[in-house]
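Listing S7. Sequence submitted for prediction.
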Amino acid sequence: MFDKSFLLHEEVWGYFENESLIGTYVVEKPHAGKLQNMKGVLLIVRLIPLFFQLSGQTLHLLNSYMRVTRSSSPSFTHHYLIMIGVSPEEQGKGIGKSLLQHLINTVKADKKSQGIALDTENKENVDLYRRFGFTLSQEAQMDNMPVYCMFYQKEG
């Protein structure tokens, strides 16, 4: 995961307590240009062995998911929240909210970015993200899995 993040201009943030990681997010920052595309090719070459371990059905589902989520992202420059999570025993303590607020503050300070795109499969998360200013931009159904695509528009 960290190789992918380094090669693709992603940022990883973590919340630690007593030297234990209890919450994290991974965000794709606005692309830096041709160098990032070249690094993306390197990553694909490194991932080829993994593709042979996945079933055709899994690869089809991943491809469909990417098509749905990326088509709902705006065409202008923005961050993309790949994942955010908190250890189950630490949930409900505001750690996820702190991580999300940190990301929002980071994006507000970034003159290039106009907001944050994300997707979630959990309907309960939609209301949480709405409280932070995200709007639902697309709702899709893939097999038995709902996909909710959302966007936070930076002010100004």
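Caption to Listing S7: primary sequence and predicted structure tokens for the chain studied. The first helix runs from residue 2 to 7. The mean pLDDT is 83.
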